[in-house]
Amino acid sequence: MLLVALVIVFPTHAQYNSGDDELDKSLLTIDANATLDFGDFKVDISGSYDITEKKLDYLSIEIGMSGGDIYMTVELAKIADKSVDDVVAVYTKNKNKGWGVIAKELGIKPGSDEFHALKGNAKDKGKGNSKGKGKGKGNGKN
User: Fold this and answer.
1) Backbone torsion region of residue 112, taken as left when φ is above 0, otherwise alpha when ψ lies between -120 and 50, otherwise beta
2) 55, 61, 125, 135: which is deepest, by most CB within 10 A?
3) Which of 140, 136, 133, 80 is nearest to 106 (CA)?
4) Torsion (CA) 79, 60, 96, 3 in degrees, nearest 10
5) Is 109 in contact with 20 (CB distance < 8 Å)?
6) How far apart are CA 73 and CA 59, in angstroms?
7) What would the pLDDT profile of 69-87 be if each residue is shown by its tens digit?
């Protein structure tokens, strides 16, 4: 089933444009997992980043974010010490330019410790290793 989800979601891979192939692949995996079970994805993200499931529904339905986009939003909010709404504003303005540009706008430079943390955390989340561990700082302000 994961393979089917990857095939369905594959066209979104180009949209991530983080500037790092490994990060883009991790986001694709996160997106595939979210596509398979969005309810489980919401529970995981909500618990890990102290953000309501209602807010996650808003990001998905109203903003049109995929699971990978939602993950990047909450993770960048945590790493850049910004609110989710601040990240969404930068995303909305720059989504056609990709997550690399969005991260730079939020002060995360390629190759920085913060970027490496972002990349490593996405890889872990894609594997499901951080599920339900509540590692977020609570920056998912509603």
Assistant:
1) beta
2) 125
3) 80
4) 90
5) no
6) 9
7) 999 999 999 999 999 999 9
